[in-house]
């Protein structure tokens, strides 16, 4: 884990945009950026807060939860990195935590336990997400919102409906964080293909639960001649990655650490996009016209200074410019297996989206 952490920290300063970070500590200032974590005292929130404290692009880190946040903030604040940290607790302080935020990350809610379904999570987390998004619409309507709270297939539509009602909805600023699916797909593929995982890229499309997660191993790089049986097994393991961790922890937790890592990777990409770094590509569950579904996990590309940024996960690329999405570059080729998987996923994904919309509009 120490090696992975070091690689992550190194990626923040040795990526194609590293000149921005280096110059920020030399002659030119890095833009001031405030990141707010909602649910910062939880199982995902704490390691995510730590990773965001390590990010040199963050100047102000606001940590919010209903309780225990001051302690988490005090602990994280002792780390000798750029950002100033403030902890907020209780409903009364939510507005202060959100004011001026450039990026809001939402890992709030309950984690999945053995035997729990995504519907079980929905019954608890939907109300939490709705309340937090109402506060976002009021206090930082222009922030990029990174939704981690499960089930993402439903919580993103809930957020969209809340923002629409408030008159603040911008589809280019709302993202369901599906980066963990990509992280898993890369890891599992590298193991079978016997290639360095740092060199692997695997687009993942669809949604963020079960069969709605569709890794496109036919488009994975570096190319490897894996059998159909191996591809099928890799696909299922990627789809069931969360369950694998829940069962391994035997009721004592879910995929909190890997999710925090994935959330930090995605937030870092958001910050780079806001700072004008070109060609930032990531994966996310966003409003889309790629399929007949209103939301879909799609691959998108940021391009040009002042762009809102990008998002990703479908086998397509979208270029964003000053006003957000500038051009949809199209879908990549799908194998017959992937086409079949896509069609199988649509009914469940459609149901989850409609469930979130219904909850938000009742």
From TrEMBL:
<keyword id="KW-0496">Mitochondrion</keyword>
<dbReference type="GO" id="GO:0005739">
    <property type="term" value="C:mitochondrion"/>
</dbReference>
<keyword id="KW-0520">NAD</keyword>
<dbReference type="Pfam" id="PF02866">
    <property type="entry name" value="Ldh_1_C"/>
</dbReference>
<dbReference type="InterPro" id="IPR001252">
    <property type="entry name" value="Malate_DH_AS"/>
</dbReference>
<keyword id="KW-0809">Transit peptide</keyword>
<keyword id="KW-0560">Oxidoreductase</keyword>
<comment type="similarity">
    <text>Belongs to the LDH/MDH superfamily. MDH type 1 family.</text>
</comment>
<dbReference type="InterPro" id="IPR001557">
    <property type="entry name" value="L-lactate/malate_DH"/>
</dbReference>
<dbReference type="InterPro" id="IPR001236">
    <property type="entry name" value="Lactate/malate_DH_N"/>
</dbReference>
<keyword id="KW-0816">Tricarboxylic acid cycle</keyword>
<dbReference type="GO" id="GO:0030060">
    <property type="term" value="F:L-malate dehydrogenase (NAD+) activity"/>
</dbReference>
<dbReference type="GO" id="GO:0006108">
    <property type="term" value="P:malate metabolic process"/>
</dbReference>
<dbReference type="GO" id="GO:0006099">
    <property type="term" value="P:tricarboxylic acid cycle"/>
</dbReference>
<comment type="subunit">
    <text>Homodimer.</text>
</comment>
<dbReference type="Pfam" id="PF00056">
    <property type="entry name" value="Ldh_1_N"/>
</dbReference>
<feature type="domain" description="Lactate/malate dehydrogenase N-terminal">
    <location>
        <begin position="34"/>
        <end position="176"/>
    </location>
</feature>
<feature type="domain" description="Lactate/malate dehydrogenase C-terminal">
    <location>
        <begin position="178"/>
        <end position="359"/>
    </location>
</feature>
<dbReference type="InterPro" id="IPR010097">
    <property type="entry name" value="Malate_DH_type1"/>
</dbReference>
<protein>
    <recommendedName>
        <fullName>Malate dehydrogenase</fullName>
        <ecNumber>1.1.1.37</ecNumber>
    </recommendedName>
</protein>
<dbReference type="InterPro" id="IPR022383">
    <property type="entry name" value="Lactate/malate_DH_C"/>
</dbReference>
């Amino acid at each position: 884990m120490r090696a992975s952490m070091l690689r992550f920290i190194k990626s923040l300063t040795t990526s194609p945009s590293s000149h921005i970070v280096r110059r920020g500590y030399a002659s030119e200032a890095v833009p001031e950026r405030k990141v707010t974590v909602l649910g910062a005292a939880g199982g995902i929130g704490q390691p995510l807060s730590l990773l965001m404290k390590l990010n040199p692009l963050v100047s102000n880190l606001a940590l919010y939860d209903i309780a225990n946040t001051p302690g988490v903030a005090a602990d994280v604040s002792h780390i000798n990195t750029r950002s100033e940290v403030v902890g907020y607790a209780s409903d009364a302080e939510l507005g202060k935590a959100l004011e001026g935020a450039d990026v809001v990350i939402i890992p709030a809610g309950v984690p999945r336990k053995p035997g729990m379904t995504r519907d079980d999570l929905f019954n608890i987390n939907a109300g939490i997400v709705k309340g937090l998004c109402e506060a976002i619409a009021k206090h930082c309507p222009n922030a990029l919102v990174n939704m981690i709270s499960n089930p993402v297939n439903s919580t993103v539509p809930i957020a969209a409906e809340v923002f629409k009602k408030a008159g603040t909805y911008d589809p280019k600023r709302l993202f369901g964080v599906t980066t963990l699916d990509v992280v898993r797909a890369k890891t599992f593929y590298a193991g079978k293909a016997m290639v360095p995982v740092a060199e692997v890229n695997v687009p993942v499309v669809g949604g963020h639960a079960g069969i709605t997660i569709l890794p496109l191993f036919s488009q994975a790089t570096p190319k490897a001649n894996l059998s159909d049986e191996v591809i099928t097994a890799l696909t299922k393991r990627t789809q069931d990655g969360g369950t694998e961790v829940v069962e391994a922890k035997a009721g004592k937790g879910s995929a909190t650490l890997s999710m925090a890592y994935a959330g930090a990777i995605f937030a870092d990409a958001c910050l780079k996009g806001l700072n004008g770094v070109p060609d930032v590509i990531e994966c996310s569950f966003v409003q889309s016209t790629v399929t007949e579904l209103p939301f879909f996990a799609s691959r998108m590309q940021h391009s040009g200074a002042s762009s809102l940024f990008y998002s990703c996960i479908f086998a397509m690329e979208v270029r964003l410019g000053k006003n957000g999405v500038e051009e949809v570059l199209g879908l990549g080729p799908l194998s017959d297996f992937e086409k079949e998987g896509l069609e199988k996923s649509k009914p469940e994904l459609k149901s989850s989206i409609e469930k979130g919309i219904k909850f938000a509009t009742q």
